[in-house]
Design brief:
572 residues, mainly alpha
């Protein structure tokens, strides 16, 4: 088939598959004004029909609301959540010494940067909303978009609600610490009760008003950055002898006492990457980014660099002030112990722990606000049956009420189902297993597409493959080694060492059932083509195959025309 006929055939197939337009309608967009760089709420689906054979089309262009500063802030805001305040003590306990813990935080920054470059390359090639879901679809379309679907499944059913549930009790621990509760009473149901209230409050705000949700996110982002800067600056002053704090031997001991257990390092790296997770946040909103050729590399790369520096300096500060034995026993409230020793009772024990809790609340706000975008992207490509009802905005509130309530219910299961004890560690390891499995696959896709489509017209940035391979290797490490028994099994361990990664694996594999029903069984029954959007997007951009075919036939490639058509007729 000649290129022109093939392009026409693809267009006809696309029109047939998406014959009933369930895309964005400007008249249904939320009427409340947005803050600078804020993400608009998802529009209500146009009530034009209900055709389960159709793939939803984006009929209108997204507004380019996101500039370079807002884009960088999106990554920094989500990365600086509970991780830096809640994981340093656990990481120290796993590796044995502050020096080795600091090495892991530095490795985390380098590896995250290697992954970030892969996501930059992929993001410039595929500039629609959807992020990793779209990258996997184009990198590994066979069999039947399985990896893309499984990623969307785990994000909606596991990763996002599990992360919100893990952050909830952390807020409780800091606020209970602020009112004088001892560490033992704040590790169980009291902390989860506070988390329950915070998650409920955030969900209600997101249901009632998108504008106030954005205002809350912006306010809490300022608070979390300010708190982290206070910790870093005071730590530097303490290290220079400018504060009257008790000296310890944390740094003078060097690497003496460092653990050599591979399982411990896998678990420690899982927690390190929990803190760095968030640099991919922007790729889910690429359709709203201004000047992506310039802003995407600087914003994602800049956010990793900024957060990496702050994380390393914060850990230096923690262990300059807090002795190692107290640091390990402080668990998730190490930052509160630090502020108490530096600032005293009123500021250090009350005010700053409350602010740290608010900074973690900011992470929950950002995660909850992004839920509708994840569901909307999956709905637009046809992954969700009856997606209009789930992803559409409420007529009165103009917010995705159904999607928010579904995510709230899933979050409550993750929050309340685990037994009392180390629920945070369980949820972090559980969520991170699936997260980094798919991040590693996406980075692999960047390498695959370099060979599969070497002349992609929108690849204006090329990642450094050795860094990509390093990132992929560590993703393999932290998904494989958690299944290897540790050299020393604690008799009082609250759950088996393999439970968290096993739950992550099971949750991912369970997704094969809805994948088969939606993308294999349903098309056989109805004749629907739920994969046509992938090939259509490639040809809209002027794919390598089109370039090669037109070169052979002597006809122009018409790449600019295809790019223009893609921007005006986006198949989501």
């Amino acid at each position: 088939m000649d290129p022109a006929s093939r392009k026409a055939s693809l267009h006809e197939k696309r029109v047939e598959v998406g014959s009933i337009n369930l895309g964005r309608d400007d008249a249904t967009r939320h009427s409340e004004p947005l803050a600078d760089g804020a993400l608009p709420t998802e529009p209500a689906e146009a009530a034009t029909g209900t055709n389960e054979n159709s793939v939803n089309e984006g009929a209108a262009d997204l507004k380019k609301n996101i500039g370079i500063f807002s884009a960088t802030g999106m990554g920094v805001s989500l990365m600086v959540g509970s991780g830096i305040f809640s994981t340093p003590a656990a990481i120290l306990g796993l590796v044995g010494t502050p020096s080795m813990a600091l090495v892991l935080w530095g490795i985390g920054a380098v590896i995250s940067f290697g992954g970030a470059t892969a996501f930059i390359e992929l993001g410039l090639m595929y500039r629609e909303n959807g992020g990793t879901m779209r990258f996997l679809a184009h990198s590994f379309p066979k069999p039947k978009l399985m990896l893309s679907y499984l990623f969307a499944w785990t994000m909606i059913a596991c990763i996002r609600p599990g992360a919100i549930a893990a952050n909830g009790p952390v807020i409780g621990k800091y606020w209970l610490y602020a009112i004088g509760s001892d560490n033992n009473s704040s590790t169980g149901w009291h902390a989860r009760g506070v988390g329950f209230g915070c998650i409920t409050f955030v969900t209600l705000i997101n249901i009632l008003s998108a504008r106030w949700s954005l205002r809350l996110i912006n306010l809490l982002t300022v608070i979390k950055i300010a708190v982290l800067l206070v910790i870093v600056v005071t730590g530097i002053i303490a290290a220079a002898g400018g504060l009257n704090v008790e000296r310890n031997s944390n740094w003078s001991r060097g690497f003496r006492g460092t653990s050599s257990d591979a399982h411990s390092y896998a678990s420690a790296l899982t927690k390190v990457f929990w803190a760095y997770d968030g640099f991919t946040n922007l790729v889910y909103s690429l359709g709203e980014l201004r000047k992506p050729e310039r802003n995407l590399p600087w914003s994602i790369g800049g956010s990793v660099a900024i957060v990496g520096f702050l994380y390393i300096m914060a850990n230096v500060a923690f262990f300059v002030v807090v002795p190692i034995d107290i640091a390990v026993n402080s668990e998730e409230i190490l930052a509160a112990e630090f502020t108490y020793r530096v600032f005293g009772h009123r500021i250090g024990r009350v005010v700053l722990p409350v602010l740290i809790g608010l900074s973690v609340l900011g992470a929950i706000c950002a995660q909850t606000y992004g839920v509708s975008r994840l569901l909307d992207s999956a709905n637009q490509v046809g992954f969700i049956p009856h997606g209009r009802k789930i992803c559409g905005n409420h007529k009165r509130f103009g917010t995705p009420v159904s999607a928010l309530l579904i995510m709230y219910a899933l979050t409550m299961i993750y929050l309340l189902a685990p037994p009392p004890g180390k629920v945070f560690d369980l949820l972090v390891d559980f969520v991170q297993w699936s997260t980094w499995l798919f991040y590693g696959l996406a980075a692999t896709g960047a390498i695959v597409l370099r060979f599969k489509r070497p002349r992609h017209p929108l690849r204006s940035f090329k990642s450094f493959h050795p860094l990509n391979i390093l990132f992929i290797s560590f993703c393999i490490y932290i998904t494989v080694f958690p299944f290897i028994p540790p050299s020393k099994v604690k008799e009082d361990a609250p759950y088996p060492f393999y439970l968290s990664p096993l739950l992550g694996l099971i949750t991912t594999l369970v997704g094969l059932i809805p994948w088969y029903l939606r993308l294999v069984w349903w098309p056989r029954q109805t004749g629907a083509d739920l994969m046509a959007w992938v090939e259509a997007e490639e040809h809209d951009r002027g794919s390598d195959e089109t370039d090669a075919s037109t070169a052979t036939s002597g006809q122009p490639g018409n790449v600019e025309h295809n790019k223009h058509e893609s921007s005006n007729h986006q198949i989501a």
